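Morning!

This is the sequence you dropped in the shared folder:
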Amino acid sequence: DDKCIKDYGYKPEPIFHGDGNRFFGVELEVDDAGEEDDNAYYVLEVGNCNGLEHIYCKHDGSLGDGFEVVTHPMTLDYHINEMPWAEVMSEAISLGYLSHKTNSCGLHVHVNRTAFGDCFEKQEECISRVLFFVERFWQELLKFSRRSEHQIERWAARYGIKENPKATLDNAKKKCSGRYTCINLINYNTIEFRLFRGTLKHSTLIATLQLVNRICRLAINLSDEDIDKAVKEAEQF
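The structure's back. Tokens below.
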């Protein structure tokens, strides 16, 4: 397949970039300038510089006239210091693409499940705290996401908070809401943060990755009791 824009189901063998155990795979949607192989070629040429395979492009049915730029898994440090995001975004802008200024585009961040622990039970425990944190600070994250309430409900619906992290995760699993949720849990190897509106602003993308990293770090390093205490302290302000 020589097409620059692959089919939606295209999934190459992942190439991991950076040193560490927490990797972020980004899906950045761009629209309004054509689902054109020629345009994708220029974006790929900039992103995969120096012979390094960083990104590929895919069709996305939710977009009217664009495509999705997808990264291989990278550590936060690699995204910030090695991945040529500024150049990729500049190229997309020069070709006429939009991301934030559309009603459809999202910025999705996958995190490998193995980052949360070396066994299923530990992973589930940490992921339950991710969900609890997101639900508890929903209004603050909604502002950060730059999405409207309507966009969130359509593309990244919340599950609803329960009395503790485990109950929040159990509730999410019972709902079986598919992938159009704030934290998509249906993938075998990753969880996917779907809250964020698309962007072609470099600082916004990096800030989004830093926020996701911080949420993951809190979920890994704090116990349920620590999270509960932190939430109660936050409620006093």
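Headline: Residues 121 and 127 are 10 Å apart (CA to CA).

More detail when I'm at my desk.
O.
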